[in-house]
Every structure is written in structure tokens, then in C-alpha cells.
Design a protein that fits this description.
By secondary structure, the chain is an alpha+beta fold. It has two domains: about 80 residues, no CATH class; about 40 residues, no CATH class. The protein is built from three helices and six strands; from the N terminus they run E-H-E-H-E-H-E-E-E. The chain is elongated.
């Protein structure tokens, strides 16, 4: 496994208002229809689990959890490299085009051909066209 401080202690989505509570309950029902064992939380249960007063309620997926995202990303990269992947970090790609069974990627400093491409970005990246 990947060492990333994974802790399967559940995942909670508290509601910040009564209107939001209706949306969170709807979300819990949607996940339950997909087979997730969701738990709807009242005000006191939400406070007991989060330690924060004021939430009118929320929902929980007991199978959810947390992990260290940086360590998880590094672990995935290490596993990919061990499996033969080549990783090009900090490389801005100008275009990606289909090239037979693979892909042709153009960068500022040259081109790369690949059978498979994984695009990884952050929440603040520009648009992908």
C-alpha cells in the first residue's frame, strides 16, 4: 500500500443552514441509492462528531475517511514509475492530439508521443481545450 496517513474514520458533510440541510439530506439519499451506507445526522449528532456547535445537521458516510494528499500523490507517482511510466513534471503542454493508437503532446521545448496520457492539474489551472 501507499503510506499516506490514511484513516477510514468516516466522512461528514455538515449543513451550515436549514436550507443547506435539505440539500445534504438529498445528497445522502442519492448516495444511499448507489449502495453507500449513509447516516443522516441531527444537530446533536453533528456537534458530537465534529465538535462544532451551530450546524442544524448533516450526513455521514462511515466508509469514508481522510489521507495526506501529497503523500498519496507521491505514492501514486512512485508506483507508476515502477510500472514503467515516465513522468514529466512542471511541463506546460500546448496541445494534445490523437496520433494513431497514441497521443502526441507538444510542449514549449519539444514533443512527446505516448500510448496513454494522464492529465494532472490543480484547482486553479487554466481551461483545458
Amino acid at each position: 500500500g501507499i503510506e499516506c496517513d490514511a484513516d477510514q474514520s468516516g466522512w461528514i458533510q455538515p449543513a451550515h443552514s436549514q436550507a443547506a440541510l435539505e440539500k445534504t439530506r438529498s445528497r445522502a439519499e442519492q448516495w444511499a441509492r448507489r449502495g453507500r451506507a449513509t447516516v443522516t445526522l441531527d444537530r446533536q449528532e453533528t456537534e458530537d462528531l465534529t465538535g462544532i456547535r451551530g450546524y442544524p445537521g448533516g450526513w455521514m458516510d462511515p466508509s469514508g475517511g481522510v489521507l495526506n494528499p501529497v503523500e498519496y500523490a507521491r505514492g501514486l507517482a512512485d508506483a507508476a514509475e515502477k510500472a514503467g511510466a515516465r513522468i514529466f513534471e512542471h511541463t506546460r503542454v500546448a496541445s494534445i492530439d490523437r496520433n494513431g493508437d497514441g497521443w502526441a503532446l507538444k510542449t514549449e521545448s519539444g514533443s512527446v508521443c505516448a500510448g496513454k496520457v494522464l492529465i494532472a492539474t490543480n484547482a486553479y489551472g487554466g481551461p483545458l481545450n
